[in-house]
Design brief:
Order of helices and strands: EHEHHEHEHEEEHEHEHEHEEHHEEH
Radius of gyration: 20 Å
Largest sheet: 10 strands, mixed
Shape: globular
Strand content: 15-25%
Helix content: 40-55%
Structural class: alpha/beta
Bound molecules: 3-isopropylmalic acid, magnesium ion
Distance between the termini: 22 Å
Number of domains: 2
Strand order of the largest sheet: 2-1-3-12-11-4-5-10-8-9
């Protein structure tokens, strides 16, 4: 029986649309060769949505996303919208989408492909075989805490305020996701905060410890200050399996982990809410406006994000595996977009990379 899934596709800004065009090839391949069909809704987010609707996430777009099985996004932002008011900036569209879809757990794998080992700025022996999963809390913390704002103090001075705030249920639900995933991997969780200086960090540590004792004592749990974690990530990244951390530290640590792999253009992410609710899938890289529209973008991070959607939202783990091993094979053949180009390899365009992947799948 053919399985049908509803997908909302949000190409976004910069290189988003060209990367998404390659995802469409994979979607077509799946429909042609597997017993799967897709109902696709395409819409705008970020700067593209601002230009079309006057807001970076229109309500009708949000409704479509909520009614889908999964949402696949490209990237948002660019200098074109630098002067736009803060609450209408492209990034705000993404933040609203995360918040409104209640996507509290952001999964960011940092995986070093053998064929790309030299892409890392770290020594090969440090990053070989690296496979870390960062679970970042995504709907709380300083990104959303109140009060926030810029206040005029009237004496020629201003005050900028953001609030770091977490409640137990928020720590608990993202902690569960991390422990559950660790059980399917190497069974270790490193929880990162700054319990030495922040009350919210102290609470984070206590709640994660309580959750571990009550439900996950079979998993190895380690606590680490977030600054130390940043250092350990570049010193000896292989010590980590799953890292669970708050929104802001997760933003920073996932960029650092991404760079251990040396290839931001390769890294997918999944943002998940309660079981059964649609997830959002997007590459870790940004919109790269400097190379947009030139066929230089690496579409693999967006394609691998789609593979995560197949696995986590669509119950098509087998097809996710097919795509992931095809990516590996394409890399082993030395086919490269400019961002991961190396000596002796063949440099190809965004579209040619997509074609090479489809050839490998076929
Ligand atoms: C990310 C990005 C976003 C964030 C921006 C674009 C709002 O850096 O997804 O890591 O800070 O969360
Ligand atoms: Mg970031």
């Amino acid at each position: 029986m053919t399985k049908n899934y509803t997908l909302t596709i949000l190409p976004g800004d910069g290189i988003g649309p060209e990367a998404m065009a390659e995802v469409r090839k994979v979607i077509t391949w799946l429909e042609d060769t597997q017993d799967i069909s897709f109902t696709l809704h395409e819409d705008d987010i970020g700067g593209a949505a601002y230009d079309r609707y006057g807001v970076p996430l229109a309500d009708e777009t949000l409704q479509k996303c909520k009614a889908s099985d999964a949402v696949i996004m490209g990237s948002v932002g660019g200098p074109k919208w630098d002067k736009v008011d803060y609450d209408k900036r492209p990034e705000q569209g993404l933040l609203n989408l995360r918040k409104e879809m209640q996507l509290f757990a952001n999964l960011r794998p940092a995986l070093v492909f053998d064929a790309l080992i030299d892409a890392s700025t770290l020594k090969p022996e440090i990053v070989r075989g690296l496979d870390i999963l960062i679970v970042r809390e995504l709907t709380g913390g300083v990104y959303f805490g109140e009060p926030r704002g810029i206040e005029d103090l009237g004496n020629g001075q201003r005050r900028g305020v953001n609030t770091q705030v977490y409640e137990t249920y928020e720590i608990d639900r993202v902690g569960r996701v991390a422990f559950d995933l660790a059980r399917k991997r190497n069974n270790k969780v490193t929880s990162c905060e700054k319990a030495n200086v922040m009350e919210s960090g102290k609470l984070w540590r206590e709640d994660i410890t309580a959750l571990h004792t009550a439900n996950f004592s079979d998993v190895t749990l380690e606590h680490m200050y977030a600054d130390n974690a940043a250092m350990q990530l570049v010193r000896n990244p292989s010590q980590f399996d799953v890292i669970v951390t708050d929104n802001l530290f997760g933003d920073l640590l996932s960029d650092a982990a991404a760079m251990c792999t040396g290839s931001l253009g390769m890294l997918p992410s999944a943002s998940l809410g309660e079981a059964g609710k649609p997830g959002l899938y997007e590459p870790v890289h940004g919109s790269a406006p400097d190379i947009a529209g030139q066929g230089k973008a690496n579409p693999l991070a967006t394609i691998l994000s789609f593979a995560m959607a197949l696995r986590y939202s669509l119950d098509c783990g087998e097809q996710a595996n097919l795509i992931e091993s095809a990516v590996q094979k394409v890399l082993e053949k030395g086919i490269r977009t400019p961002d991961i180009m190396a000596n002796g390899c063949t440099e190809v365009s965004t579209a040619k990379m997509g074609d090479a992947l489809i050839a490998e799948l076929s």
